[in-house]
Amino acid sequence: MAQFRAKKLDLGCYINVRVIRDHTKRKVYEQYETQRRKGKKANRLLTEIRAFRQALRYIIRNTTLPQRARAQAQLQLSQMHCYTRFTQINNRCIEGGKSRGVFRHFRMARFLFRQNALEGNLPGVKKASW
């Protein structure tokens, strides 16, 4: 993962190891997406990569195949880059670095969102009363 990490991080928020890792995953995924959007040839290549990954997973799960073939498929799959999947990306709180209970629009955890809203730090947000 260190080879993908930027020399200077443009985060401007709470920083810990998890935040840096998720930031790196986002950057790698953005590069992957821009390659995907460049043209039909690149899109065809990425479709082939997805199909190849799926075939390797099928080989690994198939117990009727020889153990050596399954081990080779497992090795190939483990050497493929994993940050090109959207499921690898987590939303994190910019103030606390938490990954659970994060509002996407504000990029804050529930508790910090409530504190900032009550203090009046978030424009356009006020406590509801009816």
Compact overview of the structure:
By secondary structure, the protein is mostly helical. It has helices at 17-36, 40-61, 67-79, 110-119, and strands at residues 102-103, 108-109.
SSE string, helices as H and strands as E? HHHEEH
Biggest sheet descriptor: 2 strands, antiparallel
First-to-last CA distance: 50 Å
Low-confidence stretches: none
Per-chain topology:
Layout: H1 17-36, H2 40-61, H3 67-79, E1 102-103, E2 108-109, H4 110-119
Antiparallel strand pairs: 1-2
Helix pairs in contact: 2-3
Name the descriptors.
two-stranded antiparallel sheet; 2 strands; mainly alpha; 130 residues
Task: Explain what this protein looks like in three dimensions.
By secondary structure, the chain is mainly alpha-helical. It is built from four helices and two strands, in the order αααββα. The protein has helices at 17-36, 40-61, 67-79, 110-119, and strands spanning 102-103, 108-109. Helix 2 (40-61) packs antiparallel against helix 3 (67-79). The protein is elongated. The N and C termini lie far apart (50 Å). The relative contact order is 0.12.
